[in-house]
Design a protein that fits this description.
By secondary structure, this protein is mainly β. It has three helices and 32 strands. Helix content is about 5%, strand content about 40%.
């Protein structure tokens, strides 16, 4: 949720494709996606903290101002889309701080055995510094796409009462030690037996809890036998001498964004959101000039990295991924997207910048099907094909919002949920970055939308 580029509003000035990336895109054809149903959870959806939580957690988003000055007055600061132009800021209609905890910000999804979906709320407001009062949560959602309804049936709050986290946490001195967005930025989730596994961006770490959210273990990241750390890793600190450099291997907020589970439930495939960095030069990992992201394999029985990894080639430099789940033993689904938001149907006139239109609408929001095997470890994954989330067919008028002329687009900045539900259907959901994203309408905070898509040919593609 809300990457570094989100808060800095760093936008790509252009699109640069290398020869290899162009060949990869040509080899990965587009497949159609037909809307079967849509459910909408309103943006202003909140939950109260547990009764034993510290009183400070009853109000969240108190430290979201630019200078991190504390603000306890609920609803006193207007939310503004961080992707709006400075000269024409787009307010989103929702103000902070919040009374309670925001349910929004869904950054990972799995389908449970009872047909419900487990989704996670990520770190809160986008950075380690501004989210000490945002509780880490996982929710159980019941979605009825025929009826068009969505129900939150359960919320589990993550905690560390047994002091398994090996570094100080925000709620260090409290009995239950609830985890917050200043401790971890959870972006992906899998359920394995009596454990929940989360992929974190700050360390990056893998985090294991029981089904009640109590931490069982925290695991450091390794790639090519070496530790991978971001600037937010607790062992990375600012040097006293400004002439000295800080060494790290993953950019801020470019840790684990997606994390798939092998069908036999023996391996996790954790996918970094950004390329690995050379600690000395800062250069991003590339193959033939194309930026690549690492998929790292973790053995659940040994609770250790296997040393095997694969490389996911980005369609364009600077793109990010949103989620990763398996289709079968050798293929998976990966969301790839640009750092833009807004429907082209509401784009500003050429040369115009205004708060009531999108001056930089979304261009690339896709779900790719990829293939990788143990024999191809160390190599590029193969992009089999993709569906365009900006061109979902809606011939039967199934959309509850966002459809026009028989087409539904998903023009959100961050789309961070994808999971296969049967051999012909997938569910896709957005992360609405409450209250900082307004991609459906220029001046309205995005709801959390989930769509059921018929993509049978896509899922069968080889």
């Amino acid at each position: 949720m809300r990457k570094l580029s989100f808060y800095c509003a760093v936008l790509l000035a252009g699109t640069v494709f290398s020869t290899l990336a162009a060949r990869a895109e040509e080899a990965a054809p587009a497949y159609s996606a037909v809307l079967e149903g849509q459910v909408v959870l309103p943006a202003a959806t909140f939950v109260q903290p547990p009764a034993d939580a510290p009183a400070d957690l009853k109000v969240s988003a108190k430290f979201t101002s630019a200078d991190r000055t504390r603000n306890d007055k609920v609803g006193s600061e207007a939310g503004v889309s961080v992707l709006s132009a400075k000269e024409a800021p787009r307010t989103t209609g929702i103000s902070l701080p919040f009374d309670g905890q925001a349910v929004q910000g869904f950054s990972g999804i799995v389908k449970d055995s009872d047909g419900t979906f487990l989704v996670i709320t990520d770190n809160g407001f986008g950075s380690k510094a501004n989210s000490p009062d945002a509780m880490l949560m996982i929710h159980r959602l019941a979605m009825d796409f025929k009826a068009g309804t969505i129900e939150r049936r359960e919320t589990v709050f993550l905690s560390d009462p047994d002091k398994k986290v090996p570094f100080p946490i925000t709620m260090e001195g409290t009995p239950r030690r609830y985890l917050t967005g200043s401790d971890f930025d959870i972006e992906s989730v899998q359920k394995v037996g009596d454990s929940l596994w989360f992929g974190d961006e700050f360390g990056p770490f893998l985090l294991e809890t029981d089904l009640a959210g109590k931490v069982k273990g925290v695991y450091q990241t390794k790639a090519d036998g070496k530790l991978v750390r971001s600037p937010d890793h607790p062992a990375v600190s600012t040097p006293a001498n400004p002439s000295r450099k800080v060494a790290f291997e993953a950019a801020r907020s470019k840790g684990f964004e997606g994390m798939a589970l092998s069908p036999d439930k023996t391996k996790l495939y954790a996918l970094l959101e950004g390329p690995l960095l050379d600690p000395a030069s800062g250069e991003k990992e590339k193959v033939d000039g194309v930026e690549v992201l690492r998929i790292l394999e973790f053995d659940l029985a040994k609770k250790d990295w296997t040393g095997r990894s694969w490389k996911y080639p980005l369609a364009q430099a600077g793109n990010a991924i949103g989620d990763f789940n398996m289709v079968d033993a050798t293929t998976g689904l990966i969301i790839e997207r640009d750092d833009l938001e807004g429907s082209r149907t509401q784009a500003c006139a050429e040369g115009k910048v205004a708060p009531d239109c999108f001056d930089r609408p979304a261009k690339l929001k896709r779900v790719y099907k990829v293939e990788f095997t143990p024999e191809t470890a160390g190599q590029l994954v193969r992009k089999i094909g993709y569906i365009d989330l900006l061109a979902i067919k809606d011939p039967n008028g199934k959309a509850k919002q966002g459809s026009k002329d028989g087409v539904l687009d998903f023009p959100f900045f961050t789309i961070e949920d994808v999971v296969m539900v049967d051999p012909t259907h997938i569910v896709v959901g957005n992360d609405n970055n409450l209250p900082y994203s307004a991609g459906r309408s220029p001046q309205k905070s995005d709801d959390n939308e989930f769509v059921l898509l018929d993509v049978g040919e896509f899922l069968k593609a080889k």
